[in-house]
Amino acid sequence: MSEMKQYIVVNVKSEEYAIAISDVQSIEKVPTTTHIPQLPSYMVGICTIREDIIPVLDLRNLLYGEIVASTTESQLILVSHPAMTIGLLADSAKEILSIQEDQINQVGLTGYHQTSYMKGVIRLDQRLVTILDTSSWFANLNGMKEIIHYMEDYTQEQVK
């Protein structure tokens, strides 16, 4: 029997995506964000959660290239990254799934460099849930280094 893993399922557009619960720090209501110019379009801005400054990345923009205002249903998924905590803006957070590793179907697109963050797909009755590997995604995301540098500089400015 394979290892059991838990995932948070989020909705983006009409699709479902799963993020390993071990990568998720918390799920929050979407706070007021401050837009930061000259950073990638998928970065909504920064916000404060429990006195921490968090960069907010829009999953809809990252996955589909669309910019849509958040709604009352929108959720901010706080995800661990070695350099900082990152907020991922999703249309909603839906459920927690417990899945055996052997229930994950590999997708042929994982070899394609632009979708290497898609770890696999879970088939549940009439649903397909795509698993996102946030570590791989953030490591290869165009503009992420600039965001990390900006956040380091911003944090240092706040300490002064």
TrEMBL record:
The protein, known as: Purine-binding chemotaxis protein CheW
Residue ranges of the TM segments: none
Pfam families: CheW
SMART domains per record: CheW
GO cellular component, one term: cytosol
Biological process per Gene Ontology, one example term: signal transduction
Domain CheW-like: residue ranges: 4-143
